[in-house]
Specification:
The chain is mainly alpha-helical and 445 residues long. It contains 22 helices and no strands. Helix 10 runs antiparallel to helix 11, helix 17 packs parallel to helix 19 and helix 20 runs parallel beside helix 22. The longest helix is centred in the first third of the chain and has 25 residues.
């Protein structure tokens, strides 16, 4: 039988754990001693051999995984998986490096430098020799993410959430492995978009804290990718989440933070940040500043340079219909003085969406556009016109009654409640909106 003193040194490693122990000249007994120091419990020799040999049907108990991760600073799943590269770790033999020189002191120094350098080279090879991402895998992930960014704006969340979560998890797992530097940057871009989609999902389910966590992950991925356009997009997402949560000051702050990245990238996120800031400033009662921000969004549109994020389409690009919708919603906050302009922007947005290709339609934004139109008409006393504008919104199935859509309907209801007016059309519209808001999107338990 192979003893604990010789197994790690003499056999080829079958797991990453065995490979690391071989590199560090650790024995099985060393592993067991260190495990006992960390957990206060014993690790049997039999169990240690099973870990080293990859003879596991599942993962160890959580406390055992935590101990392994503390010892070797890698995930337990990776440690119990195959070794990096070829798995061979040859030891340096001083007599094979150079012939004995005349100066013993110089001989020792040279031998040490060469041996250390060779060991570093071996470790580099073990980490990078076999990439875990091929061109086909990366292309497939890109297609998956592109499909989700388009589908998200058009299909019920419950039909997409499982795939969205699985895609994000797959990208995160690949980033734990080894890729060429260019592939790593591509993966971070996809990780940012996948996290942004999960942020939107949490937001649409009225979970702003979870939404903001995913949005921060999107920004971190963008930072690792060195992608200013994605950084601006992530800040736009944070601004959106804060806006619909009623945290208007935070929403303005996030938009301002994103502007520095938008100025450098000049992708359509620059338009999104200005347009989003406009409606938040209006919600704060700062109407002139909001109007200026609407104009800044128009100027940013004229200077757009589409990038690889925009090319993903769907939720990743801020198109012209969406810009018109944001302008209408911003001015809808401002009351009678801006009612005509609000209606004009809303009608232009509605027409733009109706004329847009199917891939650029977005049921949530189109519903928001109709709500802004209804507010403008209510402000002008056109109650039947407001009811016509709301008809398509109130017909949305429960699966599409996201947090943003329901909140936009509540904004219409609130504007209606401020008026001292009676009538059948007003009562019916109010009742319909209250009924709509009482049945909102919630995934099955």
């Amino acid at each position: 039988m192979v003893t604990g003193e010789t197994m790690v040194e003499d056999e080829l490693p079958r797991t990453r754990l065995a490979q690391l122990m071989k590199q560090q000249h650790m024995t099985v007994q060393d592993l067991r001693d260190r495990y006992r120091e960390i957990t206060g419990t014993e690790l049997s020799e039999r169990q240690a051999y099973r870990w080293l040999g990859g003879d596991m049907k599942g993962q160890p108990y959580p406390h055992s995984q935590a101990a392994l991760e503390q010892m070797f600073c890698e995930s337990a799943a990776r440690l119990l998986g195959p070794p990096h590269g070829s798995g061979l770790v040859l030891q340096a033999h001083p007599n094979d490096v150079i012939a004995p020189p005349h100066d013993p002191a110089r001989q020792d120094w040279q031998r040490q430098v060469l041996a250390t350098s060779a060991q570093r080279a071996r470790e580099f090879l073990s980490r990078t020799e076999v990439p875990n991402v091929g061109a086909e895998t990366l292309d497939q992930l890109t297609d998956d993410v592109r499909g989700l960014t388009v589908d998200y704006q058009q299909k019920p969340l419950e039909t997409l959430l499982g795939k969205m979560s699985a895609t994000q998890s797959e990208i995160f797992s690949l980033l734990d492995g080894r890729q060429r530097p260019s592939q790593t940057l591509d993966l971070f871009l996809l990780a940012g978009v996948a996290s942004g989609l999960m942020a939107r999902a949490a937001h649409d389910l009225n979970s702003p804290q979870e939404a903001m966590t995913h949005a921060r992950a999107a920004f971190t991925a963008a930072d690792n990718a060195g992608h200013d356009g994605l950084k601006a997009w992530a800040k736009g997402l944070q601004s959106l989440i804060a806006y619909w949560a009623g945290r208007y000051d935070d929403s303005v702050r996030y938009a301002g933070e994103g502007s520095q990245f938008a100025q450098r990238s000049r992708n359509t996120s620059a338009v999104w940040l200005a347009a989003g800031e406009a409606r938040t400033l209006a919600a704060l009662g700062r109407y002139e500043e909001a109007r200026d921000a609407v104009n800044r969004a128009t100027e940013a549109r004229d200077q757009v340079r589409r990038d690889d994020l925009d090319e993903l389409g769907g939720f990743c690009t801020f198109n012209r219909p969406r810009q018109l919708y944001y302008a209408a919603e911003a001015l809808a906050w401002a009351g009678p003085d801006y009612a005509d302009q609000t209606e004009q922007f809303a009608l232009e947005a509605t027409a733009a969406y109706e004329a847009a290709p199917a891939s650029e339609r977005a049921f949530g934004d189109e519903a928001g556009t109709r709500c802004a139109l209804a507010i403008a008409r209510i402000t002008s006393g056109e109650f039947e016109g407001a009811a016509d504008a709301m008809a398509g919104v109130l017909a949305l199935p429960v699966a599409q009654r996201t947090h943003g859509v329901v909140t936009a309907v509540e904004h219409v209801e609130n504007r209606l409640a401020t008026l001292d007016a009676d009538g059948r059309a007003i009562d019916e519209l109010g009742d319909s909106m209250r009924s709509f808001a009482s049945q909102r999107l919630a995934l099955p338990q």
